[in-house]
Design a protein that fits this description.
Ribosomal Protein S5, domain 2; Rossmann fold; 19 helices; 34% helix; Magnesium chelatase family protein; Mg_chelat-rel_C
């Protein structure tokens, strides 16, 4: 006679979760374990982990034919997060644990050979998908409990071992619950803007970029403060609201970058600065096997800083054009297309030439070398950069008037952001950088005398329509 049981888990597909129904059938054939439902190599190996963990938990592993079917069958299942669900499904099919306790319960976690539960990535997006599917109870490893506690409307439990889960299913012991008071992280201390001496034009450009959500390019010799200014932009930006913070946390969780301490949720805009040797998968997302979010997605609702941008391969720089326009990255794989949010603020820093002397008159680069160096930043990419500011060498450290600090500038930035949010609230745009160009040119049209410099440059062919739209966005931010 064949015993049957059903249990729930969740598969991670990009930064979205897909509820997976696991059916366990025990008996009716030669001993063996058969996994069906497009499992990957890590999931295929779970058979040995699950069997060892069940034995170490003091339960008997059935010496019969075991079929474990994961549905939807057409969705590829990847990773080790199904281990606990598979173990409980087998034991429920043999009557070792009550099957009714598994109804509506999601089980996530990797099993060690001795039965310990290990954290897995993507718990937060998996729980959000489970909640949307009507599942209201979940058991996760203790290391993932703070992350799981971010999801409202679900009964969340944490277990340290398979034996803890089985005892809880039998009603013999309770499991740990998340601490509701430890969900939000304190605001960290940011680098102080007053540390940047001089560079009044660049400081003004950084303030405008932060106020309007505009992309920025800083060009100047080494030591002029390009990196310092870029690192201080995040301190000027407004905090993320809860929905944005949860979306960012989901991306970090899917990438395996979410902190597992008591403060997995942060309202601080991210600052991501990948090295110019980063691969396409590291920048945009993807990779061999399971696709993961890249730097552009980890910078969602924050700043992506590319230092020494002419050193980046041109094809990677040009690949930024789509996420800059659409706010997302699409990674195509044989088993489907993964979509990652990627609405970030791009900040670029570049030297004027390869040798980059403090005084441009001392440059030893030939004209062809300088031209090739600048051509690494293609015209279509530069057409998407709103502000370009030259930076000059610093001539003195002493100033008569101390530079404005982060708090002073941030107050003006927040006021400008609040005004823009109120102005565009009925349309759903957050800042001036989000407003489509056709809307600015039609519904919010400026007088002809105001836009005459733009139209004259367009007629001469020195400015594109996209560039004119970006100039209008910056004008609304400066207004």
């Amino acid at each position: 006679m064949t015993g049957m049981a059903r249990v729930w888990s969740v598969a991670l597909h990009g930064v979205d979760g897909v509820p997976v129904e696991i059916e366990a059938a025990v008996g009716g054939g030669l001993p063996g374990v058969h996994l069906v439902g497009l499992p990957d190599a890590a999931l295929q190996e779970s058979k040995d982990r699950v069997r060892s963990a069940v034995v170490q938990a003091g339960r008997t592993w059935p010496n019969e034919r075991i079929i474990l079917a994961l549905s939807p069958a057409t969705l590829r299942k990847a990773g080790s997060g199904f281990d606990v669900a598979l173990a409980c499904g087998v034991l429920a099919a043999t009557g070792t644990v009550p099957a009714d306790r598994l109804d509506g319960t999601v089980l996530l976690g990797e099993l060690a050979l001795d039965g310990r539960l290990r954290p897995v990535r993507g718990v937060l997006p998996c729980l959000l998908a489970a909640r949307a599917a009507g599942l209201r109870r979940v058991v996760v490893p203790l290391g993932s409990l703070p992350e799981a506690g971010l999801v409202d409307g679900m009964d969340v439990f944490g277990a340290g071992s398979l034996n803890d889960v089985l005892s809880w299913l039998a009603g013999d012991r309770p499991l740990e619950r998340p601490d509701d008071g430890a969900a939000s992280a304190p605001r960290p201390a940011f680098p102080e803007l007053s540390d940047v001496v001089g560079q009044d034009d660049a400081r003004r450009a950084v303030e405008i970029a932060a106020a309007g959500g505009h992309h920025l390019l800083m060009v100047g010799p080494p030591g002029t403060g390009k990196t310092m200014l870029a690192q201080r932009i995040v301190g000027l930006l407004p905090e993320l609201d809860r929905s944005e913070a949860l979306q960012l946390a989901s991306i970090r969780s899917a990438a395996g970058r979410l902190a597992t301490q008591q403060h997995p949720l942060t309202t601080v805009a991210p600052f991501v600065a990948p090295h110019h040797s980063a691969s396409e998968a590291a920048l945009l997302g993807g990779g061999s096997g399971v696709a993961r979010p890249g730097a552009v997605s980890l910078a969602h609702r924050g700043v992506l800083f590319l230092d020494e941008c002419p050193q980046w391969p041109p094809h990677l720089l040009d690949a930024l054009r789509t996420p800059l326009e659409e706010g997302e990255v699409r990674v195509a794989r044989s088993d489907g297309t993964f979509r990652y949010p990627a609405r970030f603020q791009l900040v670029l820093a570049a030297n004027p030439c390869p040798c980059a002397p403090p005084d441009d008159r001392d440059c030893e680069c030939r004209g062809q070398v300088r031209r090739r160096y600048r051509e690494r930043l293609s015209g279509p990419l530069m057409d998407r950069v709103d502000l370009r500011v030259p930076m000059v060498p610093i001539s003195t450290w002493a100033t008569e008037t101390p530079p404005e600090g982060t708090d002073v500038v941030r107050t003006r930035v927040l006021a400008a952001r609040a005004a823009a949010a109120e102005r565009w609230s009925e349309h759903g745009w957050r800042c001036n950088g989000d407003v489509p160009g056709p809307v600015l040119r039609s519904r919010f049209q400026l007088p002809q005398r105001v836009v005459h410099p733009l139209t004259s440059r367009m007629k001469r062919g020195t400015l594109t329509a996209r560039g004119a739209d970006r100039a209008l966005r910056v004008a609304w931010a400066v207004r």
